[in-house]
Each structure stands twice: as C-alpha cells, then as structure tokens.
Write a structure and sequence with these properties.
With 312 residues, the protein is mostly helical. The chain has a single domain, classed as Rhodopsin 7-helix transmembrane proteins (Rhopdopsin 7-helix transmembrane proteins, Up-down Bundle), CATH 1.20.1070.10. Helices cover 71% and strands 2% of the residues. It has a two-stranded antiparallel ribbon with strand order 1-2. Helix 2 runs antiparallel to helix 3, helix 3 packs antiparallel against helix 5 and helix 10 crosses helix 11. The chain is globular. The N terminus is likely disordered. It is found in: Cell membrane; Membrane. It is a multi-pass membrane protein. It holds the Pfam family 7tm_4. Keywords: Cell membrane, G-protein coupled receptor, Membrane, Olfaction, Receptor, Sensory transduction, Transducer, Transmembrane, Transmembrane helix.
C-alpha cells in the first residue's frame, strides 16, 4: 500500500514479482524451485552433519566448509520459501519491515560467505606454501575467531543499508524480484539516496572487491609454490583447491554480474535482472554441497558409509 500525502507518502508493503510475463506457468516453476530448496537445505545440512560427527574432518578446510554450508542453508531459508509462496499461492505482498529484514539477511549472509571464501583461500595457501606450519597457524580457536569475524563483518558492513527505512516510497511499491534487495528497493525511494548509492559502491569495491583480490593473490602464491613441486605432488596440491575454486566462481560471478546489471542497466525489472538475481541466490547453495561432495574424497566416503556402501 502506498500513502498519498505528497512527499511524505510511503510504502507499508511491497509487492514481489516472480518471472514477469510467464503468467500461469509460474505455478509449475514452483515445483523445481521447491526441489532446489530441498536439495540446498538437505545437501548443506548433510555437509554440516558429516563434518560435525566425523572427527577426521575436524580440519581447517572442512570446518570452514561447515560454516559455508550453514550460511548457504540460511540464505536458502531466507529467500526460497517466499518465492514458492509467490508462485504457488500468489502471496506477492511482503510487509515493509519484513522486507528490510530479508534484505539485511541476504546482504549480510553474502558478506559472511565472501569472508569465509577468503579464509578458505588462506587455508589452502598455508597448507600448500607452509605445510609444516599449517596446524600451528590455523588452530581450532583461531578458526572459531575467523568465523566470528565473518559474522560481525557481514552484519556490520550491511547494517548501514537499513538507512533506507527513513525514505518515503511514493513512486511504486512493486519490486522487480522475488525477494528484497537493497539495489531494487533503492530505485523506488523518493529522496536523496546518494549515501546509499555511494555506500553500496564502497561495499562492492572495498569488501567484495578486496576479498576477490585477496583470493587471487592467494592462488598466485599457491601456483608459484606448486610449480616448484614434482608433477605428482603438484597435481595433488592443486587438486585440493578445485572445490574451493568452483565455490569462488559460483559466488562471485553471479554476485558481480547482478551488481553490474543493477548499476548500469536502465531497464528496471528486465529479464536480465530477474535471471541474474535468481542465479545469484539459487545456484551457490544448491551446487556447493554437490561440488564438495563429488570432489572431496573424505566426504564421499562418509556419505557412502551412511548409505551402506563405500565410494572409491
């Protein structure tokens, strides 16, 4: 609902959309979406459970993976149930405060995931470049502190985005996605949104941008160290990085793509916006546990034992 008191008009609810132009076909889209939700939650919960109960997996790489899986589960639960409700029950309205909470959860959890991907890159760097010091550098208490830093950093970086609450929304209350994003809400605000634009750009450059650079530098030194090893040792060392590299691409490529589309595209609610937004949030939680489950031998073996057989 939009108020009608001139410049003081504001939105009490927002309207979320699914895939514009598909009409009744959106009902059927909810079935694969529901399957993806189950796959994401089940897959990531299995990763968390296996790392928790298997003492041999209480190592830095797997503990960070456990944290990553927990964050992916929360992202899925924060977005997909409402999307399913939109497609199946046409429940397109969301209260303004609920939209703010969802927006903060999405952005802060994404910031936490970015921090953890940096920590995982650092873990691979230490393990390959300084293998004898790996256990003494990345101790369990330090890993726990890194996880706490990821939570605080993600929440603190995104907290200023909640300042959008002070703006009136007198143009429209129809958002262009199936969930609430700061970029999307900001375009509907009536008022001086320069702070939100500048701060959003600062977060992209000095948080996500710096994180991606740190990961790139880590892999530069990893490759440099790997080249000095024998062929067999080099393949083994780099093989431990494959899953993490996949997770990095699954997170950063859609994230940066969505940010660029929102910042430079002039068509609000275009199909490019919608596709990029859904890929950004749906793909990493679904594929990360599959990638780590396939590429990590210890996890494959544990899953194999759980189902009564051992996967070689």
């Amino acid at each position: 609902m939009i108020g009608t008191e001139g410049s003081n008009a504001t939105a009490t609810v927002f309207i979320l959309v699914g895939f514009p132009g598909l009409g009744a076909a959106q009902f059927w889209l909810a079935f694969p979406l529901c399957f993806l939700l189950l796959l994401a939650v089940l897959g990531n919960c299995i990763i968390v459970y296996i790392v928790k109960v298997e003492r041999s997996l209480h190592e830095p790489m797997y503990l960070f993976l456990c944290m990553l899986a927990a964050i992916d589960t929360l992202i899925s639960l924060a977005t997909m149930p409402k999307m399913i409700a939109i497609f199946w029950f046409k429940s397109t309205s969301i209260a303004f405060d609920a939209c703010l909470v969802q927006m903060f959860c999405i952005h802060s959890l994404s910031g936490m995931e970015s921090t953890l991907l940096v920590a995982m890159a650092f873990d691979r760097y230490v393990a390959i470049c300084y293998p004898l010091r790996h256990a003494s550098i990345l101790t369990v208490p330090r890993i726990a502190k890194i996880g706490l830093v990821a939570i605080i950093r993600g929440a603190a970086l995104m907290a200023p985005l909640l300042s959008i609450k002070r703006f009136p929304f007198c143009r429209s209350n129809v958002l262009s996605h199936s969930y609430c994003l700061h970029q999307d809400m900001m375009k509907l605000a009536c008022g001086d949104i320069k702070f939100n634009i500048i701060y959003g750009l600062i977060v992209i450059i000095f948080a996500i941008g710096v994180d991606s650079l740190l990961i790139s530098f880590s892999y530069f030194f990893i490759l440099k160290a790997a080249l000095s090893l024998t062929h067999e040792a080099r393949l083994k060392a780099l093989g431990t990085c494959v899953s993490h590299i996949c997770a990095v691409f699954l997170f950063y490529v859609p994230f940066i793509g969505l940010s660029m589309v929102h910042r430079f595209s002039k068509t609000h609610g275009s199909h490019v916006h919608v596709i990029m937004a859904n890929v950004h949030l749906l793909v990493p939680p679904v594929l990360n546990p599959l990638v780590y489950g396939v590429k990590t031998k210890q996890i494959r073996l544990r899953i194999g034992r759980a189902f009564g057989r051992v996967t070689p």
